[in-house]
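Class, look over these structure tokens:
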Amino acid sequence: MTDILTDIAANGVATVTMNRGQVHNAFNEHVIADLTAALRKVGEDPGVRVVLLRGVGKSFSAGADLDWMKRISGYSHDENVQDAMGLATMLRTLDECPKPTIAVVQGPAFGGGVGLVSACDIAIAADTATFALTEVRLGLLPAVISPYVIAAMGERACRRYFLTGERFSASEALRHGLLHEVVPADGLESAVDATVKRLMECGPASQTAAKELIRAVARRPLTTDVMLDTAQRIARQRASAEGKEGVGAFLEKRDPKWRS
């Protein structure tokens, strides 16, 4: 049975699904490699407009697989670094995917599962979902996922949840910025569909450029170099075929070509 499933619908919505429900979609080095490859593939596919990340069964993802943890406990320092870089590469691939990404969180997300949610552009969860950064309860650290979790939740919230390893609710995750939307479990698919619809109304090239813009500007002081970089980015987009089409469609009171 394939651990990672990929489906691309006719409308350009790609769904990447963690298919390990029997172990709560926990991942090991093989799942990490397969998920990295799947994310890279849909990101490079010109026919893909939006990427949904899902997990089958009751859980979104429990993070690290127990058998994997047993194996890596015997690794040398260098082997541990190499292994951890696989997870780091997967998260970076998700974070830098050129297409809009949505985490569809139907159930618990723990440890590395929280990292996956944090690395997506948009995160929508059922109100029954729960979250935890449990690494310290095992004498470990949420190190590799930390850049994404801290960016999503903020330093203050992470000072609590990194240190206690406690579970927190979907409403708390929403309050701290990990989630964008929390809905009743039976309304999760409708909420995802509504967000996909909004994303599909926008220019795909401008969405990719917007993601690059955020990475270029976030957490940097507003220097002259940053100002010039942002001016150059909008100049390029204004002169692009998509930019001209979007403005032209607005002025002519018609839908742009990407909506047809």
In short: The longest strand covers residues 13-18.
